[in-house]
Specification:
Layout lengths: L10 H6 L36 H12 L7 H11 L1 E2 L2 E6 L6 E3 L10 E5 L21 E5 H7 L3 E2 L4 E2 L7 E2 L3 E3 L2 H17 L10 E2 L10 E2 L2 H10 L4 H14 L5 H4 L3 H5 L1
Parallel strand pairs: 6-9, 10-11
Antiparallel strand pairs: 1-2, 2-3, 4-5, 7-8, 8-9
Length: 267
């Protein structure tokens, strides 16, 4: 069962929420500037509650690092569960476009969907290796053509409309998802920055204020990601996805879906 607890967050987030196809927004209770409360605060997150800044980031790293790792081939079947269309169990919802597409159309041809590394795998050069290259918390189904358009671009506002991209935009050095996926992307990127701190043989991933980061282990722009997190709070789809990954696959959680206010508390 999805543990929602009592959700209290900045009131601006409630008026700007964009929800994926066919889903209602999660039940929320507002108290300006109050923290979110979840059923995991006294258990999973107990050593992080009340902390801020580097102390909070360090505690969350310790909490979310233990995880069951998947092979890259196993990600195909996992995404068919984590991203299942709530209105059609034969389909998955695609990142960036919001399109619903048959689970069977996974592959590399035009019209297929493939495995998008939201934190581009070249940023830190981790490729498809078990660990950051197979972490479900940042891997999402995506239209092959749109995935190619995004490539390894950093995230920023602006650009021209992406064909069939649901409102996503792109320019020479950055990509912006459609409004309903911007918060999702921000929380996935910042999860990666907390989970992978360079102490497990992989690069220390960090957000920065640049675009064009190339093969460096950075992803920008942080200020934009923070704004996206605030403007597009976690949807019911995103919360359910977090729960499925925790219960069924990796046994770890994305803390910024449970506590979106922790983004501001750390950065």
């Amino acid at each position: 069962m999805l543990a929602t607890g009592i959700r209290s967050w900045k009131s601006v987030a409630l008026t700007t929420a964009a929800v994926l196809v066919g889903l209602a927004a999660p039940v929320v209770t507002t108290t300006p500037a109050a923290a979110t409360t979840t059923a995991y605060d006294s258990t999973y997150y107990k050593n992080a509650i009340g902390k801020t800044g580097t102390s909070l980031k360090s505690s969350l790293h310790t909490i979310i690092t233990p995880q069951t790792k998947l092979s890259y081939s196993a990600v195909w079947d996992a995404l068919k569960v984590t991203d299942q269309d709530p209105n059609n169990s034969n389909n998955v919802i695609l990142l960036y476009s919001g399109a619903s597409r048959s689970k069977s159309l996974n592959g590399g041809d035009v019209g297929d969907w493939n495995r998008e590394h939201t934190w581009a795998k070249s940023h830190g050069d981790f490729g498809e290796v078990t660990g950051p290259g197979t972490d479900l918390h940042h891997l999402r189904p995506c239209d092959v053509t749109i995935n190619s358009t995004r490539g390894n671009l950093d995230f920023d506002n602006g650009g021209s409309s992406v064909t069939n991209g649901g409102g996503s935009t792109v320019d020479s050095d950055s990509f912006a998802p459609r409004a309903a996926d911007r918060g999702d992307v921000a929380r996935m990127i910042l999860y990666m920055a907390v989970r992978y701190e360079g102490d497990d043989g992989f690069a220390d991933l960090e957000p920065n204020e640049k675009v064009g980061n190339g093969s460096n282990p950075y992803m920008g722009k942080l200020a934009v990601l923070k704004a996206w997190n605030e403007a597009d709070p976690p949807s019911a789809f995103e919360e359910k996805r977090n729960q499925v990954i925790y219960d069924t696959y990796q046994k770890n959680r994305n803390p910024f879906i449970d506590h979106p206010e922790w983004v501001e508390a750390i950065w």
